[in-house]
Amino acid sequence: MRGLLILLLLYPFLxxxxxxxxxxxxxxxxxxxxxxxxxxxxxxxxxxxKLGGLLTVAATLREGKVGLFSLLWPLRxxxxxxxxxxxxxxxxxxxxxxLLPWPSPKLAEINLDxxxxxxxxxxxxxxxxxIEGEYERVDPRTPSDxxxx
Length: 149
Prior knowledge:
Blueprint: H1 2-26, H2 28-63, E1 65-67, H3 68-72, H4 75-85, H5 89-99, E2 109-111
Antiparallel strand pairs: 1-2
Helix pairs in contact: 1-2, 2-4, 4-5
């Protein structure tokens, strides 16, 4: 735990050091252009992936059996966009690694809790949490003097 905290504290300095090295190699103007371009590319990735990622995650959850990889894979574009928006070369390298088309590993399937599955349960406990009853919908009446005409 202490090592993780030290890495977390050293990360901004590592990003600044990488930017200083890049500026020394290619020049300050090109480094500034790199930072601005990676920020805009990251913003575009995050903007374009939010709805698609959420829909994919919802579809995988609806199936009942969810692999860890299939649950986290749509979020990789969003994380890559966030890493590109952070100024620095280290985060850009991690973002580019996330954007590579890696083949999906065969991870163990995770069974969701039975309450989240649709349809009849295989063990016959279909109506376990159902409370039967009747209800009547009552709409409140608005006085006639409060109507907009």
